[in-house]
């Protein structure tokens, strides 16, 4: 048997039914016995909506009024009556089972399922399987109009059914006409058989996705504006009624590994994707969600993975995934299982844990955990921000796609795995940040954040003439903004003492500025993150051995950069290397060599960054005088790159930005092939580096 079903909402009608999130206000149905070609009683039921403000189109087409709807039953009661009346009619006809049949898919997929999901009550099983009369009609009559262009009226006209819509109540005519169409399809000339109903998935299935898969771009959408705490199940609930592919929800992460409010969703076919696009600006809680088309390539970039370890971890189906963040680096599987406790057992014990690590095996502090049911996952989420060791642990719902995305981010291989071997001398600039114990520097503390070099020079007054060339160093914080500190190199210790006495607590704009005498060594310590005050000198964090992870070597004291890339550096753009006075005295005065054995650039932890030093006679950031550089290059027979355009500086980078992100940021900028070939003697391998995109300049 079939139960022919028709409905209407308080908003749009026809092809836009359900696209405006308006509630159901009318249900009309009738049972059809396909074998006996009999029909049951036709039933019409009004539905009381929470919002009785009817659209103009609804009033015009249906003839319903808010007053009439106000006396109706709510949707849950109407659906109960529907089940009872259908069962009664089936008994009369001598039948026991039935399948719904509707005009298209909108009533079932876009109205009933989303509305009942929002109102938190379940639909009976009969609403998860139905026949689409338009598709069945086109199968029976292939010469008729395309499925998307079919309506009840066009199907009736194609069959020559003489029904007058004006003679019947709204909804009644539609159901009677649909029944007449079905009987025509069952006639001897057609003998149509209803065999393949449409199905609605009961729940979203999680699962892994491989980068080798082929994803049809016509099945993918991008959802934007999601609450940051939303999970894949929340997104599946937003698209309730539509069939999402297995593992088809991929939450997008930002550069810090946190969710950015976007997700890519893959549906089983393009028809489902098109219906999903109609939910543009529908609401998830109090937020409206934007829905746009996306590509299969974008989905694979987020959700695809190649790791066998991840594939094995995600091979256990229908598991709830929880992400743990902030784990101590020394945490073991036993520690995590003990933290979760017996009230939330992990699926498979240790096999249900996946620690996220860097390519060299170092832990990142993240882990993913599998739970067999929602109850265990909820118990685990109650431990959010509880303490493990000396750290509080954050717990969030996660997805298979997020597991892949996080692992892809941390386990990605370097873009430049090997480096050329030759050692290239780098010419230092004619000025350096002095080191040593001579107290010929002053520190300015408490500067207004808007203060510039010109303000400092005005503040110094007559002492400006005693500043060394390029001796003013503004100190920037980790965001690249002024920290309120500056260092000035004076020509002698006496000059520094006089300035400290004269300018201490002198006003600059609306703030008083503290001025202290210090040495070059103390200045370097502060620039590297140490503290200098009346209590003495505290070393920077990079000099504290306790900050080095126990399994790794301590930070190196010198910057190590690729040899070919070293030719692009001007050392004043890097932090000054901290040296002892003896080491400084022994260092070669004109040439610094950067060994090429290491494949990465190692920099000490810094709390502050010095800006490029400037001359007291010039305001702004200055490069080394071209004449001085040319002279130094001639003296050592070392060709170098010209100054203009050879170096760019980037500010405001995320703290965890790596080489890969910077390379991607500058993608598309190319050097002209002949720009530098005549300036530096390089191997073919090195020359190919310099002809690569401009991102090398930023290293």
Structure description:
The structure is a single chain. With 699 residues, the protein is of the alpha+beta class. It folds into 5 domains: 2-199, Nucleotidyltransferase, domain 5 (2-Layer Sandwich), CATH 3.30.420; 209-305, 2-Layer Sandwich (Alpha-Beta Plaits), CATH 3.30.70; 308-411, Alpha-Beta Plaits, CATH 3.30.70.330; 441-528, RRM (RNA recognition motif) domain (Alpha-Beta Plaits, 2-Layer Sandwich); 648-685 and 692-698, no CATH class. Helices cover 28% and strands 21% of the residues. The chain has 22 helices and 27 strands. Strands 1, 2, 3, 4, 5, 6 and 7 form a 7-stranded mixed β-sheet that branches. It has a 6-stranded antiparallel β-sheet with strand order 22-23-19-21-20-27. A hairpin with a 2-residue loop joins strand 11 (282-284) and strand 12 (287-293). Helix 6 (152-159) crosses helix 7 (172-185). The radius of gyration is 36 Å and the shape is elongated. The two termini are 72 Å apart. The model is unreliable at 413-431, 542-609, 617-633, 635-645 and 671-699 (pLDDT under 50). It is found in: Nucleus. Belongs to the ESRP family. Residues 320-400 form the RRM domain.
């Amino acid at each position: 048997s079939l139960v022919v079903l028709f409905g209407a909402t308080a908003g749009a009608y026809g092809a836009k039914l359900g696209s405006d999130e308006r509630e159901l206000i009318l249900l009309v149905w009738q049972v059809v016995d396909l074998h006996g070609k009999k029909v049951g009683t036709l039933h019409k039921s009004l539905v009381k909506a929470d919002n009785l403000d009817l659209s103009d189109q609804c009033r015009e087409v249906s003839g319903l009024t808010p007053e009439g709807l106000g006396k109706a039953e709510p949707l849950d009661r109407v659906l109960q009556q529907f089940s009872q009346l259908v069962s009664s009619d089936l008994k009369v006809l001598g039948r026991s089972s039935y399948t719904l049949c509707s005009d298209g898919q909108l009533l079932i997929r876009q109205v009933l399922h989303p509305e009942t999901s929002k109102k938190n009550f379940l639909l009976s099983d009969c609403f998860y399987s139905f026949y689409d009369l338009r598709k069945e009609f086109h199968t029976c009559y292939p010469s008729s109009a395309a499925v998307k262009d079919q309506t009840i009226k066009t199907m009736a006209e194609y069959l020559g059914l003489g029904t007058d819509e004006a003679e019947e109540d709204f909804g009644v005519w539609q159901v009677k006409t649909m029944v007449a169409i079905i009987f025509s399809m069952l006639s001897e000339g057609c003998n149509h058989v209803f065999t393949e109903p449409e199905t609605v998935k009961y729940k979203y299935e999680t699962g892994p996705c491989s980068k080798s898969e082929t994803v049809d771009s016509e099945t993918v959408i991008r959802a934007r504006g999601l609450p940051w705490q939303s999970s894949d199940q929340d997104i599946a609930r937003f698209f309730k009624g539509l069939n999402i592919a297995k593992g088809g929800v991929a939450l997008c992460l930002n550069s810090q590994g946190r969710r950015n409010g976007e997700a890519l969703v893959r549906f089983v076919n393009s028809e489902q994707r098109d219906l999903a696009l109609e939910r543009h600006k529908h609401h998830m809680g109090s937020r409206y969600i934007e829905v746009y088309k996306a590509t299969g390539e974008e989905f694979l970039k987020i959700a695809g993975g190649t790791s066998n370890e991840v594939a094995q971890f995600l091979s256990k189906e229908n598991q709830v995934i929880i992400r743990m963040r902030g784990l101590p680096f020394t945490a073991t599987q036993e520690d995590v299982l003990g933290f979760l406790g017996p009230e939330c057992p992990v699926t498979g014990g240790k096999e249900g844990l996946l620690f996220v690590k860097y390519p060299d095996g170092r832990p990142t502090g993240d882990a993913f955990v599998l739970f067999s049911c929602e109850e265990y996952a909820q118990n685990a989420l109650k431990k959010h921000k509880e303490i493990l060791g000396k750290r509080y642990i954050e717990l969030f719902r996660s997805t298979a796609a997020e597991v892949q995305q996080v692992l892809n981010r941390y386990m990605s291989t370097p873009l430049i795995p090997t480096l050329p071997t030759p050692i290239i001398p780098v010419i230092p600039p004619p000025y350096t940040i002095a080191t040593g114990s001579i107290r010929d520097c002053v520190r300015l503390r408490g500067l207004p954040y808007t203060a510039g070099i010109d303000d400092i020079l005005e503040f110094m007054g007559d002492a400006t003439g005693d500043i060394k060339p390029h001796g003013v160093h503004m100190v920037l914080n980790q965001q690249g903004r002024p920290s309120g500190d500056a260092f000035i190199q004076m020509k002698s210790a006496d000059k520094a003492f006089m300035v400290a006495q004269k300018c201490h607590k002198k006003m600059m704009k609306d703030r008083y500025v503290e001025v202290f005498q210090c040495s070059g060594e103390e200045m370097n310590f502060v620039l590297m993150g140490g503290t200098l005050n009346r209590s003495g000198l505290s070393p920077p964090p990079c000099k504290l051995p306790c900050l080095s992870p126990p399994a790794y070597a301590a930070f190196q004291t010198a910057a190590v950069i690729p040899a070919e890339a070293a030719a692009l550096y001007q050392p004043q753009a890097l932090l000054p290397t901290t040296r002892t006075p003896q080491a400084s005295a022994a260092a070669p005065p004109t040439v610094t060599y950067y060994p090429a054995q290491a494949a990465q650039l190692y920099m000490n932890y810094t709390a502050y960054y010095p800006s490029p030093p400037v001359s007291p006679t010039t305001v702004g950031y200055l490069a080394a005088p071209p004449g001085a550089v040319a002279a130094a290059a001639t003296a050592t027979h070392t060709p170098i790159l010209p100054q203009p355009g050879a170096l760019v500086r980037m500010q405001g980078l995320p703290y965890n930005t790596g080489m890969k992100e910077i390379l991607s940021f500058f993608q598309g900028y190319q050097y002209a092939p002949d720009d530098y070939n005549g300036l530096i003697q390089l191997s073919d391998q090195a020359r190919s580096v310099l002809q690569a995109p401009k991102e090398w300049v930023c290293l």
